[in-house]
Every structure is written in C-alpha cells, then in structure tokens.
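Problem 12. The chain below contains 223 residues. Write out its predicted structure in token notation.
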Amino acid sequence: MKETVRDRLLQFINELGISTRMFEQNCGLSNGFVRNTGESIRRNNLEKISTIYPDLNTTWLLTGDGNKLNSSAKSITSISSEMPAPSKQSSKGIPYFDVDVTMGYDELPNDQTNIPNYYLHIPAFQNCDCAVPAYGRSMIPDINDGSIIAIKEVSLDSVLPGEAYLIITDEYRTVKYIRNCKDNPNKWRLVPKNLEEFDEMIIDKTKVLRVFLVKGVITNKIL
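Solution.
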C-alpha cells in the first residue's frame, strides 16, 4: 500500500512522542487536521508546521523523497536523548497560560492562573518556565501583536541589558527591552522596538516584582 502524506506526518509525530492533538495545537492547526490529511497539505498549513518544526524536511513530508529531517538537523532520537530527564510536568512540554500580557503600559489586574490551557512541545523551549500571549504594537516587528512568547524567570541581578523581558509590577505586565540608566543604577529604561509610536519608560527596580527573559517567539500569521 502506498504511503500517504498522512502516514509520514503520523510517523514524524510519533517520533516526537506527542499526541496528534498536541501537534495540531502547537502548530495552530484545526482539531482533526492530521486525521483529515490526505495526499497533500495546503501551503499555509505547511508553513505553520515548518515554523514550529523547522527540522522537518517538507519535501519528504509531501513526496517521501529525501531524508525525514533537513541536512543540518540532528535525528529526532538524538535531540530527545540530549534533553535532561523531564519531570512529569515537563514531559508534556512547556505550559501555556492564556493570561493578559501587554506590550504597552496599560494597567492590568495582576491575576495568576495555576492551571495551563495546554502544553507546547517545542524542544528549543523546553528550559522555559511557560508560554503566554503578548498583545500590543510596541515591540513590532520583533514581537508581533498576538504572538506567543516563551519565557524563563530570572533574578533582577541576572538581567542582561539589551534583551527583551516580561516585567511585572503591581500596576502592569509589559514586554520591553531593558537597558541601564547611566545616571542611576537603581533604575531601568524600558525600551520599545517600535519607537515611532511608543516612548521608552524609566522604572525603579524596587517596583519590579518579577522579571522573565523572553527566550522565544511564536508568531501567528493570518493567511
């Protein structure tokens, strides 16, 4: 029996060690996408898959020709074996919390959600604490409105100026580049990428409750 695109896609998903539903959620695909895949995949859906899983050789996926992984990629097995032994929670991937994070300076209720909406299985982000959505235009084009950011909490002393961080205070949560204030070591400059529409802000470090390094960005493209 001839191998189909669906057969090859299932083979890749099985080697990732995740469910088809988790794969669909990670890629932003509709529920049942894998089950309904036949002899081809639309270009926009193929781009969604390759964005999240760039090591997958899409030529192999569509035609069966060539290697399963791109030439620069490691095998799925070797990538998995190099990861530290996961806990019960991390084996599911990194938790995604659908909480309000803004890239502006809007005041937001500082609510916390303990139960994740779902998990993202992205090997490059496995050392992150969680993933959350980011809304606003102040960080475009680096972080587009509605993107998902993978973050890891760090101490205030370990902040590296010039990197993007999620900063949490009593008044707001915002994503900005952090830079030092040359005239005051006790303050930070919160700098947007989109300086045409937004101004930078000076914040006292004592006002910061928590800070998270932005380690990855997943951009949603509406085609």
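Discussion. The longest helix spans residues 5-16. Students who got a different answer should revisit the alignment rule from Section 12.3.
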